[in-house]
Amino acid sequence: MELEDLSVVEKAAMLSGGSEWDSRGNDRADIPSFVMSDGPHGVRRQLGEGDHLGLGASKPAICFPTAGTVANSWDPALAEEMGKALGKEAHDLDVNVLLGPGMNIKRNPLCGRNFEYYSEDPIVAGRMAAGLIRGIQSNGISACPKHFAVNSQELRRQASNSVVDERTMRELYLTGFEIAVREAKPMSIMTSYNEVNGVYAHENKHLLQEILRDEWGFDGMVVSDWGGSNSAVAAVKAGGSLEMPSPGFTSVRELEGAVKAGTLSEADINKRAAEVAKIAAATKLVGVGRNDLLKDDIAKAHHNIARTVAEHSSVLLKNDAATLPLKQGTRVAVIGDMAATARYQGSGSSKVNATKEESILDEVKHTEGLVLAGYEQGYDRQGQPDQVLLNDAVALVKKDTVDVVLAVVGLDERSESEGLDRSTMAIPQVQNALVEALTKTGKPVVIVLVAGSPVELPWFDDVAAMLYVGLSGQAGASATVRALTGEVNPSGHLAETWPMRYEDCPSSGWYPAIGRDAIYREGPFVGYRYYETVGVPVRFPFGYGLSYSTFAYSAITATATGVDFVVTNDSDIAGSTVAQLYVRAPQGGVLHPDRELKGFAKVELAAHESKSVHIDFDRYTFRHFDVAANAWKTESGEWTLMIGDNAEHLPLSIPHTVAGDCTPAECAADPALGHYLTGQVKDVTDAEMAVLFGHEALAPGKPTTFGVNDPIMSWVDSKGFAARTVARTLTKREAKIRQKTGSPDLNTLFILNMPPRAMSKMTQGMVDSAMVDAIVKIANGHTFRGLGGVIAGFFRNQSANKHTAKELNHD
């Protein structure tokens, strides 16, 4: 039987999940159900029905470095190798669709999920994601890049409206997805929880149809984030294919009713069902060994791949007096709780049940050529002051048997998680105090920094060397020690800017948005686009990374197709660097940041070797989005091409004339943009922002009444005692558990961020939209009327579910 021959109810049933992780198939049309699973840096195949936050047990799998760490390799080919291993494990664990990579732009360093995202720049994010996607899909399964789109904060994540001007959205927040779609052709893509300019992402026709499908040519399945669907009917109209997890039969009835009422065409249902069926067919051969664990030989090989990725992703941030690599026979004092108990991944739905764990302490013990002079914990992992731990560490370091101090510090498990944003850019004060005390001993201090995103470094000037390892996966400890000893030459470069202090960030004054509307007031001036335009000093510029080698750049030339130059390793040590191409637009024309990355190449060189490097121009190099024309255009005139190894160190430059669609005079920026013209976004007025946005910006504020899309956390201000008590109790509970366990309470955080309408999406049919409306009445102070509606709605919904189930079985 053909898909089109199925009844409307049968086709509608295919557009929502059958369980937490499975789609609904159709036996009559020979369409099997398929399995979806996190994650971006390791397969989280849960046992039984599982849960979307990763609290349940999952099968052992390799935990690779997180995206924020892999991006520091600037090596899409390496990402592809990692993707091949990820896809192989997904295949062997019977996963048809692997939910990753995460590729949202890092708008602000405090986003709790930044460790899962690649970069503040769309070229890096897009190219790295494309590599991973190609690798995953080489195994016959679907990758699923996420979260589409304009998703940059965890607070109110299911009830937040990202308000952004069209040009910034196109050039900054969508270009990475465009590169991934065009270059790697993912079979599926996941929408974000948030609204984009007032319309939920999963039902946003502008995003899903006009841009994703019509402009980029995507022909795959669009799946909602778990609980991220709002209206099933609106989603189907706009291009949303699959609603996850199972909402029971509520959405089926809504879709059937809309077709009967003539408000939804059966042709739209057919399109969406065909997109779901296409995934089922394309990944049908997955599951040769359903529910098998990874074989030992595969686990061992993939552990080694994870180590290689970590080795190429570590970033040498400082190395005074050639402290590193550590010389043969160096007597090392290892300090820090994270040296003994590794932290190598973040919290949330991406958390992997690793097949193996390593620690830096054990690796130092077993590394030939190093002498372990002792170990001290140094600090309380949960940040509680403990003078004894600090004193013991200092006492060890002062011993004559210690040559070098290896201090492992960074962010703890509470700091980086799905469901909440960081409150500060600082690492715990007990760790800062420890490092300051260690530097005062006079011994050289080498810092190994563990964190998925930038942190403030008040003691940076006083330490001898620093290696940033990020969240480096289950093989990160051995990779780290290999880099410290010189067995590996660090070659990572930062894929995001590290500001001196949080207050320097362009969006620090309005992030995260605490109300419904998250206004992207800073426009295109995110990360280095802001710092380099305005001239704000930073700790480390975008693209920064040292090496045990030194490199020189020379002989730049440009043609109509690209730029050529020579890179020389002028040291005695083989190594790799990242050559980066930035462009500066003609002066007096379209509003642009001072410089923008448009290409890069990882260059591996033997000692004293030189290589000619070519970076192609492409559709992204000189374009800008013309909002008035609703089209991409190129500015004519003299551009400047700049080559170097970070956004501030660009020793080569050359003028390059481009023949485009408009001269600088013809497409000159509106003078009314005011402070935007110089990147001074912290001083932008509301009137200037209205010019950028093309309309008056929204004014955030508290709702006077609550609706189905206001999060549970907002109920703390409810008139109703019951709703207010629920919100306040949950808030206190989460804080208490986080303090007690050292890890966030993800379930409670999810509920607090969740709007009531998600109850009809996350309860497998126990709650329908009418019951949600009744629950909202409780939040608005009509407790008894709301309770009556919930009770009556429950029995009505149960009866309707039984009827729909019979209808499907009959068909």
UniProtKB/TrEMBL annotation:
The keyword Hydrolase applies. Transmembrane segments: none annotated. GO terms for molecular function: beta-glucosidase activity. Its EC number is 3.2.1.21. It is an enzyme of class 3 (hydrolase). Residues 577-647 form the Fibronectin type III-like domain. Pfam families: Fn3-like, Glyco_hydro_3, Glyco_hydro_3_C. InterPro entries: Cellulose_deg_GH3 (IPR050288), Fn3-like (IPR026891), GH (IPR017853), Glyco_hydro_3_AS (IPR019800), Glyco_hydro_3_C (IPR002772), Glyco_hydro_3_C_sf (IPR036881), Glyco_hydro_3_N (IPR001764), Glyco_hydro_3_N_sf (IPR036962). Keywords: Carbohydrate metabolism, Glycosidase, Hydrolase. GO terms for biological process: carbohydrate metabolic process. Belongs to the glycosyl hydrolase 3 family. This is Beta-glucosidase-related glycosidase. It comes from Bifidobacterium ruminantium.
